[in-house]
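#structure-requests
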Amino acid sequence: MKTKFGKYLENFMLKSNYTLEYISKETDASISIVGHYRKGIRIPKDEFIEKFIKKFISIDKEKNYIRYIVAYDRTPELIRKELDKKIDKIEDNIIKLPFVGKAAAGRGYVNFSSENIGLNETVSYLIEVSGDSMFPTLCDGDNIVVNSEVKNLENIDGKICVLTYHDQTYVKRIKVKDKKIILKSDNKEKYKDIIIEEEQLEYLKLEGLVTSSIRKH
């Protein structure tokens, strides 16, 4: 019978378009070992699980779920029946991240509407990066996880954030200087800073902090 983690890993790779080679590279495990984990014929070691979580998982509930199903896979069959009742509840409570739209890593993108999907009730969501201004940190087409709980501009100095300025949505690295906010690109040779003076700050809205990214291969 296939392990719980094997089913999880298979779905995760399909959803993210990740290959065995990529998972292997990011977790320092051999391709054959990762293949065995995906097929559910071997139970992963704690070292692999922690590397996998650190690289790919940003939501605490999902981290806990992964650790739980690995512990479940290691549990004798006689005890699993009771655990099955709990695991169904945990699966129901895993956060399903909504996909909002696009935000530009270049010159602004309008395809973003947090109000339309009720983000007031959602801590994190996905946005597709459009453009190359944040290269090599972020690439065109990457999906980024945005934590919408972070709303204070004073606490995001040096961090990559999603912001809306005059109805244009950006993915930029933030620099707080004096009473100015500077939207900086990691691709400095191609893109200039966007400097927002104090009197223009009322038109700037912090949508959230970028916590991780998913790259398609």
